[in-house]
Design brief:
It is built from twelve helices and twelve strands. With about 425 residues, the protein is α/β, with parallel strands linked by helices. Residues about 1-30 have low confidence and may be disordered.
Amino acid sequence: MMTTRRAFLGSSLRAGLALPVVQGLPRLPESEPIETPVPLAARFPDLRSRFIFEYYPWYGPNRHWNQWDRAPPVDIASAYVPRLGAYDSRAASVIEQHARWMVEAGAGAVSVSWWGQGSYQDQIVPLLLDVLRDHGLRATFQLEPYTEAHGRRFAEDVLYLVREYGEKRGFDAFLLLGGPGGAETPVFKGFRSILPAASTDCHGVTAPIPDYFSDDEWRRELATLRSTLVHDFPEALFLADTVNMPRAKAAGFDGVAVFDNFVPPESYALHATEASALDLLFSFNANPGFDGISPRRLEAGSCYSAPPFAPPADPPLDWSRADERERAARLSRLRIEESFDATVAVQTDAALSNVRRAFFLVYLNSFNEWHEGSAFEPMLHADALSPAQRAFDYHNPAGGDYRLRALAARIRAVTKPVNYSPTPGTTP
């Protein structure tokens, strides 16, 4: 069983059942979205596809819900109980409901967390793509650190994904961004790609990082990949999950796509400026913060420390109180609004590289990373928790779908149709 992403790093940190259809999301009172000088909908005809949910197809019986000694279906590896309970990612009814929620939120694509050829997650992809296609959604992939040699397999893995889930299906559900002159551009993200060669633990012991891949090695790997794809996709994009702009540039990535919800929205402008100075593209996520679970048992001498709630709560939250759970929900909603507005602002700044290179991409972190408490997927309303579930002190607030509704309001504000005529002699 795979651990959560943060545990894996040691840093930053109802199968088959018919499920109810959740109807359209009601409007939620909202703060005023930002206004952009040139409407995004006028610049990008495929704008909805540029809002991409991070998606985790890794749940199932004895898979992930039982992380760190949890005992599903009541005791699950999450601070929140999902609306659908401890579901099976392989169930078509689950994927169908997920797709409906994504469409209601206004997103047009998902970034599939992918863990290698033939993996559990890989086996789910064909059904996932069928459902996404039927709902007008597209898929791209985040290549995960499924082996210490994942860097050396990056080109091989990308070509596998393009062949199996693009070419063989006629690219019916594969995300291809529209580009100048009608060009179609695939985009892939590598997680854990820019790493230090060694790290020092809390005991002062320094050791090599097993999956370190040097910048020169990355550059050669990406060059090989581009040379193979050049005839079909000369503008294929490869993004690294890092804020280390010089190394992303040295490694040959086209830009960065930051996953970490502990990177605060107020830092997006600085990072975007750093990226632009190196002519790198950038994508900073819209997110509800972080409220992750922790192991119930730690080995003697462990360097593990529980990650904090994000955004910071002052005073600290008392999860035993209903009013404090509502305070946490307000903080989370504020993070959604601030991170969304911040990423749109830097990506529509004419002085920065994204506008110069006609690029816009917002990852929504996440649809269903329940271990880290970052899910936009609706959770149970607090009053719907069973007595058995209440015994585990879950953090569900009164309105379990508040995150998706807040996100939907933000996306709706920038994707609505517009009547826009550019100044003569200019282009949007």
